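Researcher: Good morning. I'm working through a list of sequences from a screen, and I'd like to move beyond sequence-only analysis. For each chain I'm collecting a predicted structure so we can compare shapes side by side. This is the next one on the list. No need for commentary yet; just the structure.
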Amino acid sequence: MDNQPKKTDILSDIEFDEPKMQQRMTGPLDNIVPWVIEFRVVGTPNIIKVRVTDEMLIGRPDPTNDRAPEIDVTPHGGHTMGVSRRHALIRTGNNRITIEDLGSANGTYINEHVLDSEKEYRIRDRDIIRLGHMRLQVHYVVKPSTTDETNFNIREQMQIPRVGNGERILVVDDDRNVTEVVAVILRHAGFKVVIKHSAADAMTEIEHQMPDGLITELVLPDMGGIDVIRYAYQKHEKGSLPILVISMATGGFTMGQAIDHGIELFLAKPMAIDELIRAIQKMKQQMPIT
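Model: Good morning. Structure tokens for this chain:
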């Protein structure tokens, strides 16, 4: 007889339009490490999107031990650019990301400063990492905290107040890593979540069932987040539907349109988990009392 306690699926109240991603058990946010980063291959349009784990090897596959690195740069010319199979190790923790050169043949650099082997160096947003001759610019998309200071108790302090009562929130963004992070935070806060990755799918969902709140990116692959907002307001009395914009477009015409539509809650990418929690609390306060 199996007497082991059953683990609750934190994604049970999240509706996806693709299979669930593998979850990782860590800290108070039981199922997620609150980091999402991108490595942009300098000089190319290529982006390596990384859903961060505690420790990640960056390099090329090693056929001798049948191991592939968590961050494989082979498709981006890693071999010809002098990237070793076990080039460097990236670690996360305490509100920081570090990199350690593993004795690579051609060295590891941060902003053209060579790193000593087997010594950890902190990586910050927009830093340029060079592996041999390959240059990668780091972009934090989601990070734990707005502060840049090292926080050795970040996971213990990252408690999410349960403010929701099963209200249904529609999350719209084509970045699946971002939507999953937002969804897990919302679920912890007591909401039901529906995820869509295009404006068209979001509008179909709104037509099918009006959400109690909307979180949307302004830049979407088919139409804009403004189109989703307009459609929602056609179906819902303007001002009675709380809307949070989380976007890379934090200035210019598109943002002006959002302001003109009465949107008051904005988060710019890179987004921090602590500011997301505060924004969700404000969304709840804007919901009609039932």
